[in-house]
Amino acid sequence: MSHADGGRADELPPPLRAALGASSLPWRYELTSTALRAYARAAGYADLVYYHLDTARAAGFRDLPAPPGFLGVAVYVPGLSDEVFSEPSFGQPDVPHGLPRVLDLGTDTEHLAQLHAGDVLLATTTVVDIRPNGDGLLVVRELVFCDEPSGAVVARQRRSTLYLQALS
Amino acid sequence: MTMAWDSLHERQALPARVHACSRLDITKYAAASGDFYPPHLDPDAPETRELGRLIVPGRFKHACLGRLVAEWAGRHGFVRRLLCRYGEADTVGRPLTCAGEVRRLVVDGEQRLVYLKIWVANAEGRITTLGTATVVWTGP
């Protein structure tokens, strides 16, 4: 799957080609009830099932259900997390593009199970595509989210990011 | 929502949702997601000056389209897949409309699947984000 048309991966310089297929260390993502409510609030949900535990249980959920696209929040650790995006910076595959600006081109989330408040996930990131795109570089990363206690894969998310010299 | 599988049909429209996309809305999303990229929040940041405007985070639109689908399906469906392509950056402070329609209904063994086309249109009516969603139908 590709989110944008672009050049070919075999046109890349060796350091970038070497990043293809590289994977991260696993990182913990927590679905706290507070974070889940904040996400539902930001998206404008009015259904109390996302906010009120008794309502969620009455609807058949074991806890507050995660809205589609919400996969928890990466645990923040000073020095190991990115200060802008709050995602892990430690243990991530290096894509040495040298381009300072970022544009989000696409998100593809696949839910394999209903997630709930209280769930803890471990995510591993793999660089699945790198290709020239206009004046920039398109990088596609796939995050695989596993339920921490069981190890079962519960979600996948592909993120397509365009790196650029300038946004204008 | 009291839909049943038999009442669904191709080209059926989902009720549209309008998001003001105010700076407060984007701030709430930043707090929820941890995305503090300056072009979404800080008018004085160098990146924002390059653009000349604050832009709406792509994944905020992903979240809003997720809401569109989840509220349409109600208790009758599980949103299995949500795909968005952000074709154009939207401006903070300009309202966006999330909309969609049923594209295909598929019975695969015991599973009933609804394939949706979803999109975000700006105040001029131009589609700036296009996507698809798959709902596993669990209701009657």
Task: Walk me through what this model shows.
The complex is a heterodimer of chains A (168) and B (140). Chain A has a six-stranded antiparallel β-sheet. Chain A is of the alpha+beta class and 168 residues long. In chain A, 14% of the residues lie in helices and 33% in strands. Chain B has one domain: Hotdog Thioesterase (Thiol Ester Dehydrase, Chain A, Roll), CATH 3.10.129. Chain B has four helices and five strands, in the order E-H-H-H-H-E-E-E-E. Chain B has a five-stranded antiparallel β-sheet with strand order 1-3-4-5-2, with helices on one face. In chain B, strand 4 (111-121) and strand 5 (127-137) form a beta hairpin. The two termini of chain B are 12 Å apart. The A-B interface holds A 3-4, 35, 38-39, 41-45, 47, 59-60, 67-70, 73-74, 76, 83-87, 101-112, 114, 160, 166-168 and B 17, 19, 25, 28-29, 31-39, 47, 50-52, 57-60, 62-64, 66-67, 69-71, 75, 78-86, 89, 133. Strand 3 (101-111) of chain A pairs antiparallel with strand 2 of chain B.
Q: Determine the strand fraction of chain A and express it as a percent band.
A: 25-35%
Instruction: Report the CATH topology name of chain A.
Output: Thiol Ester Dehydrase, Chain A
Structural class of chain B: alpha+beta
**Distance between termini of chain B?**
12 Å
Topology of this structure?
The complex is a heterodimer of chains A (168) and B (140).
Chain A: H1 14-19, E1 27-30, H2 33-43, H3 53-58, E2 73-74, E3 101-111, E4 120-133, E5 136-147, E6 153-164
Antiparallel strand pairs in A: 1-2, 1-4, 3-6, 4-5, 5-6
Chain B: E1 13-19, H1 23-33, H2 38-41, H3 46-51, H4 58-73, E2 77-86, E3 96-108, E4 111-121, E5 127-137
Antiparallel strand pairs in B: 1-3, 2-5, 3-4, 4-5
Structure at a glance:
The complex is a heterodimer of chains A (168) and B (140). Chain A is α+β, with helices and mostly antiparallel strands and 168 residues long.
